[in-house]
Amino acid sequence: MKNNQKVCIIGLGYVGFPLAVLCSTKGYEVFGFDKDEEKLRRIEKRENIVEEKYLEEMIPKAKINVIRDESKMNDCDIFIIAVPTPVDEKYYPDLSFVVSASETVAKNMKPGALVIVESTINPGVCDEIVKPVFEKAGFTVGKDVFIAHCPERINPGDPKWNVTNIPRVVGSFDEKGLARALEFYKSIISAEIMPMKSIFEAEATKIMENSFRDINIAFVNELAKSFDLMGINVVNVIRGAVTKPFAFMPHWPSCGVGGHCIPVDPYYLIEKAKELDFDHKFLRVAREINNGMPLYTVELLQDALNKVERSFKGTNIGILGVSYKANVGDLRESPALKIIELLEQREAVLHVFDPHVSEKSTAASSDEVLEKSEAIIVATNHKEFIEIPAEKFRDKGIKVIIDGMNCLDKERIQKLGIVYKGIGR
Fold first, then answer.
1. Same domain for 350 and 230
2. What is the mean pLDDT of residues 77-106?
3. Catalytic residue (choose from 23, 126, 150, 261)
4. Do 183 and 210 share a domain, yes or no?
5. 243 and 320 housed in the same domain
6. Are residues 155 and 274 both part of a single domain?
7. pLDDT surpassing 80 at residue 1
8. How many CB atoms within 10 Å of residue 239?
9. Is this prediction's pTM over 0.85?
10. Is the pLDDT of residue 267 over 90?
11. Are 206 and 151 in contact (CB under 8 A)?
């Protein structure tokens, strides 16, 4: 199969690029299409555009044929759509990238091609949006084109789980499409590939996974607020609960939820359910709680500044971390961006540093941030920030620390006379 089939991946981001590298190392001839010219140039230079360490050894062995002219994908046998599925300012799903990618494939593919959607979508998108695009182009699904859905599973920065070994689920409209998709994924991934009974079930699986996480994070974030009023350290309570060997899974409070999935995917299910006159109250409340954590973090800072007789206006405040996750440069839906926006509205003087996001940093180092600031918010638990000695905060004149990721040594910092507040800690 691998030696005579060509794979074209539409969208070369955190999902598509690692997948393209993997397919190439497994023997497929791989073509990559993306509208970001800078990204394409970097791929041609064999750069690791997503900063994943496990790809370092794979990239030199891979060859990705970057195409800018979409007509050059017309000889491919397998198309994988891995484009973003964001929400707009009102949290309404934006499927325009999926539609555009589907139209591009339909316009350029040869009959008999397998089209796999990896983008995260709500149940019904393949049937109501993707399928009609190919039918309009004159293809009969199950005969001239085979459509499958294999929702991506990516955990940026994870040292163990990546595109090569994370189990997957696959669904299709017909048995032949399912069989072809299963054969393809089994040829590239060293993990279980589970066939679903329908393409709708495959679509629903990813939405369920991330809604589950969002709900549980919202639960502990709400507990963090409640326990803080009671003088109870929620982190210690979670650690205590973890000692139960069954029926408990730890989730941790923070200054907000970021990334490409958890703060976005529940809205796809919420909006789809509305079409059927069903209200996902639980999901809506969870989203409201988690969306409110950046403001809660800023309010913690306000209370702490009051203790040292400072106000927001004109106060030098340092932001350590901008990306949504430790030790990666991913800005998607990062709560730090909202925190920065809220502080700018309050006329604070900000000094920002993230070792993985130079374009958002206003300082050259964490030392420079500490040198210029009176108060600090740790918005990302990068290892560089966790390793800062507590004494350095004191020596640089830091009066207040808001630990948005609960990653610093609370007791040691407080013993140095610094006002410390964590999230429920």
1. yes
2. 96
3. 261
4. no
5. yes
6. no
7. no
8. 11
9. yes
10. yes
11. yes
Backbone angles phi, psi at 52, to 5 degrees: -90, 125
Q: Name the packing angle between helices 281-291 and 199-230 (round to 10°).
A: 50
Quick one: pLDDT at residue 78? 98
The two beta strands, 316-320 and 168-172, are unpaired
Residue 70 token pair: 């979409």
Q: Of the residues 166, 196, 226, which one is the last residue of a structural domain? A: 196
- The length of the chain is 425
Say if CB 385 and CB 194 are below 8 A apart: no
Q: What is the pLDDT of residues 346-383, one digit of tens each?
A: 999 999 999 999 999 999 999 999 999 999 999 999 99
* DSSP string covering 280-331: -HHHHHHHHHHHTHHHHHHHHHHHHHHHTT--STT-EEEEE--SSSTTS---
What type of residue is 298? V
What is the number of structural domains in the chain? 2
Beta bridge partners of 79: 8, 115
Q: Quote the domain boundaries for residue 218.
A: 202-425
Distance CA 89, CA 177 (A): 36
CA angle 24, 29, 31 (to 5 degrees): 90
In the prediction, which pLDDT does 67 show?
A: 96
pLDDT at 414 over 90: yes
Q: How far apart are CA 273 and CA 147, in angstroms?
A: 24
261 is catalytic: yes
CATH number, position 139: 3.40.50.720
